[in-house]
Protein 1
Amino acid sequence: MRGNNAMAEAAVRAGCRYYFGYPITPQNDVPEYMAERMPEVGGTFIQGESEIASIYMVLGASAAGGRAMTSSSSPGISLKQEGLSFLAGHELPAVIANVVRGGPGLGNIAGSQSDYFQCTRGGGHGDYRMIVLAPGNVQEMADLTYLSFDLADKYRTPVMIMADGMMGNTMEPVTLPPMIKVEDLPEKDYAVTGRLGKRKSRVRLSLILEPKDLEEHNWKLQRKYSLISANEVRWEGFELEDAEMVIVAFGTAARIAKGAIRRVRKEGLKVGLLRPITLWPFPSAAIAEAAKTAKDFLVFELNAGQMIEDVRLAVEGKASVHFYGRPGGTSPTPRDLAKVITNRYCQHFRPI
């Protein structure tokens, strides 16, 4: 199954019944798939007149209690930023998929991770965060999308899936999660359901003009983000047990890194991988733990170097941290990366 289609089908099976989007490659498989599946399950598909319209349709459906989703690619996600801020401020759950393009401006449609800062810093205005999940294969495109709807509802927050053009278009076998019954989902006691006069108003607000009240609202959001940071960190270790050198990479870059590590391990190099699955909350504690034994970290990204800042903060100067990246949609092979790893390893530890 293609990665984009696996993500879309997992969303349907997680109870998504409201999809709003606008076409942009390399994620066009998602709205195409949803245009067919939403009517089949009694849901609603609307191609908005723009990305901005689409994200506010998501906000409206979420405020009404539905499981809602949109997807786009980098320039389209930029246009949705104001709506993402509103979702966070209103404390409304939603799932947003970003199949990343390469570079600033319109970029290209190749595999890229150039939106790391945009995704992990919240993106829009205000002191907010989003849970950001980075699939490492097509199975995780399905599994993490399925999970994202539960996380969004649990914390009443937008959740982003950050993939890239290569991940979205890779075809692999996938075991799809079960179809849930929407009617079995817990009632959302905050949803605006139109029962005027029968209960207290459920108007959702992020426009709070009284400074003291706004400050309290923002501290409430921060307490929620602290709770997410404590409970929702996800990461994978690969050949970490005896690693002297640790590669930190996510998504497509992590797949390339695994291939490179298998190559250098055959030459006796003690190299491992730490793969963040949640880009926020970031697995800082796991990296700090690895830095107790591994003294050299190589951050490998398909951008000009963004996650390296989070890795350096996590390492806290207890190990050296270096960067290798390929911005612009260029993806090195495992052989290419193995050469980089070998050169660096020999400089720091021992010649082969």
Protein 2
Amino acid sequence: MSVDAATVRKIASLARIAATEAEVEAMVPELNNILGFIEQLSEVDTTGVEPLAAVIPNHLRLREDKVTDGGIREKVLQNAPQAEHGFFAVPKVIE
């Protein structure tokens, strides 16, 4: 697969990128090199290779999802500028 100047102009137009004729001519070989590399990659035999989510093994350390310090509402509300009925009170925003 390769692209020509007309294809590059069309892609630039669809992407709403203003490209001069010199830029279009410069992009043609660059895009063809990229497409060539992609074709080269598709020739690699990957049978038996497991798909990777990351190159290095990365295991997230997750803590157990449980409440450890709940039940301290009054203590938390002591820091609130204003509290009502066990909740933070905020000024009315919408009339």
